[in-house]
């Protein structure tokens, strides 16, 4: 049952999301204060400020929020599906297939939407390959899926290394920037937002079943959960969310790994609370990380994946330490 403290947590995360949007709107090489941003949002006035805000920062901020939300929700699903606390959205090789397709597009001279579309198609190809190899008749287990994904990741990694070592210097720079995660050219369309909304609705529908599944397959089956069908649904939703996120911004690490653990430490263990909380905190986290990437060495911009790694590593180690202390207590 959702308790009062859970509602308080959701309200705090919602407030954090609004603040994160304001920070993201005001961050960059051109200085825009909170008051100027709010004024432009409430009553837009033609000029340079309006152009910067509406043509550059708002689309980028929305892209960062949608990407972070997708990765965080996918991380929640993967950790339940594989019953592995170290699982993240990229563990099954989806990002590898996406990266191979995107880097191939860069190598061929394509840019913009062509790279995003190629990344999405590559991710879908990887999804079907992993699923096809992991499913042997009806014997589809989390361990088999995990091992198949790890092997596919290694294979995609080898192809990526071949592409990097055989490319020209200019292509290598673009490839590396994409691989580290980049929101500078990212835009989110209605399709990506629709995937996020549909994914949220489906996961909320299955949230009670997720609570049971997290305790084990046998207990879930004993309580009437169709475990095989639920696994398939979770795999497809997580894969599509990851594919969309990678197609928007490349490979951004630690969002899908750290955010679910942070929320569980805050008491959000019920998936009816954990899933929407992951959406809000994941989106906020990536917006703040992108704001740092845009301003820390302005006017030069860092890949946002570098910032998420710098923040994510110590945060994850701290979470790990706190979890160990709780277990000893």
Search tags:
14 helices, 329 residues, 76% helix, globular, mainly alpha, ABC transporter involved in vitamin B12 uptake, BtuC, single chain
What's the story with the biggest beta sheet? none
Supply the CATH architecture.
Orthogonal Bundle
CATH C-level name: Mainly Alpha
CATH fold category name = ABC transporter involved in vitamin B12 uptake, BtuC
Distance between the termini: 26 Å
Q: How many helices?
A: 14
Helix percentage range: over 70%
The helix/strand order is HHHHHHHHHHHHHH
What's the domain count?
1
Class based on secondary structure composition and strand pairing = mainly alpha
CATH superfamily: ABC transporter involved in vitamin B12 uptake, BtuC
Radius of gyration: 20 Å
Approximately what portion of the residues adopt beta-strand conformation?
under 5%
Explained architecture:
With 329 residues, the chain is mostly helical. The protein has one domain (4-328): ABC transporter involved in vitamin B12 uptake, BtuC (Orthogonal Bundle), CATH 1.10.3470.10. It has helices at residues 4-26, 34-42, 48-81, 94-107, 113-134, 142-165, 169-179, 190-205, 207-213, 217-222, 227-249, 255-265, 271-295, 304-328. α1 crosses α3, α4 runs parallel beside α6 (142-165) and α12 (255-265) packs parallel to α14. The longest helix is centred in the first third of the chain and has 34 residues, at 48-81. The protein is globular. It starts with a helix and ends with a helix.
């Amino acid at each position: 049952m959702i308790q009062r403290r859970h509602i308080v947590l959701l309200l705090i995360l919602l407030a954090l999301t609004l603040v994160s949007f304001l920070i993201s709107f005001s961050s960059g090489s051109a200085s825009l204060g909170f008051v100027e941003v709010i004024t432009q949002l409430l009553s837009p006035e033609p000029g340079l400020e309006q152009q910067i805000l509406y043509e550059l920062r708002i689309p980028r901020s929305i892209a960062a929020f949608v990407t972070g939300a997708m990765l965080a929700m996918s991380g929640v699903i993967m950790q339940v599906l594989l019953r592995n606390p170290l699982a993240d959205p990229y563990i099954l090789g989806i990002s590898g297939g996406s990266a191979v397709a995107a880097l191939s597009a860069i190598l061929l001279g394509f840019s913009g939407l062509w790279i995003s579309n190629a990344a999405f198609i590559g991710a879908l190809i990887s999804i079907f390959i992993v699923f096809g190899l992991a499913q042997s008749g009806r014997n589809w287990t989390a361990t088999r899926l995990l091992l198949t994904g790890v092997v596919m990741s290694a294979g995609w990694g080898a192809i990526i290394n071949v592409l990097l070592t055989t490319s020209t210097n200019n292509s290598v720079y673009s490839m590396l920037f994409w691989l580290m995660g980049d929101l500078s050219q990212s835009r989110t369309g209605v399709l990506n937002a629709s995937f996020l909304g549909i994914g949220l609705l489906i996961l909320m529908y299955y949230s009670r079943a997720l609570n049971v599944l997290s305790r084990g397959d046998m207990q879930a089956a004993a309580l009437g959960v169709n475990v095989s069908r639920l696994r398939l649904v979770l795999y497809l939703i997580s894969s599509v969310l990851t594919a969309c996120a990678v197609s928007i911004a490349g490979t951004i690490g630690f969002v899908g790994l750290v955010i679910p653990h942070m929320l569980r430490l805050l008491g959000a263990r019920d998936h009816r609370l954990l899933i929407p909380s992951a959406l809000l905190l994941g989106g906020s986290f990536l917006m703040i990380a992108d704001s740092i990437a845009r301003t820390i060495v302005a006017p030069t911009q860092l890949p946002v994946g570098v910032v998420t790694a710098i923040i994510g590593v110590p945060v994850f180690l701290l979470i790990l330490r706190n979890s160990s202390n709780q277990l000893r207590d």
